[in-house]
Amino acid sequence: MNELISNALKHAFKEGQKGTLEISMKRSTEDTIFVRVKDEGIGIWEEIDIYKTESLGLKLVRNIVQKQLQGKLQVKRNKGTEFTLEEEAKYV
Q1: Helix (H, G, I), strand (E, B), or coil: what is residue 68?
Q2: Smaller CB count within 10 Å for the chain: N or C?
Q3: Rg for the chain (alpha carbons), in Å?
Q4: Is the pLDDT of residue 19 over 70?
């Protein structure tokens, strides 16, 4: 989460541009946890494939979510950028 929030603060908004950053977490009835980090900024470039990028920050996010937590990571590019992390609640 820290890396996604940091990336949004650094890259989502042009200098002097105001915007919103939303961070939310919910637990479904099937014991799945969803964490969402969404901004309404300029949006992550279409050329960036979060599953193949060599960007250190996104590699870190991908590895933690997929390898450590065995979760899923999704990105939506619509009026900004939205990352959703999905993980089964194994520890609760």
Answers
A1: helix
A2: C
A3: 14
A4: yes
Report residue 21: phi and psi, to 5°.
-120, 120
- Could you give the 3-state DSSP secondary structure of residue 62? helix
Tokens of 11: 């890259």
Q: How far apart are alpha carbons 22 and 80 in whole angstroms?
A: 11
Supply the pLDDT for residue 92: 52
Six-digit token string for 9: 């603060």
Question: Residue 70 — left, alpha, or beta (φ > 0 → left; ψ -120 to 50 → alpha)?
Answer: left
Whole-Å CA distances, 8 to 15, 54, 61: 13, 18, 13
Residue 86 host element (H or E) = strand 81-88
Among 61, 56, 54, CA closest to 81: 61
For residue 17, which phi and psi values (nearest 5 degrees)? -80, 135
pTM score of the predicted model: 0.84
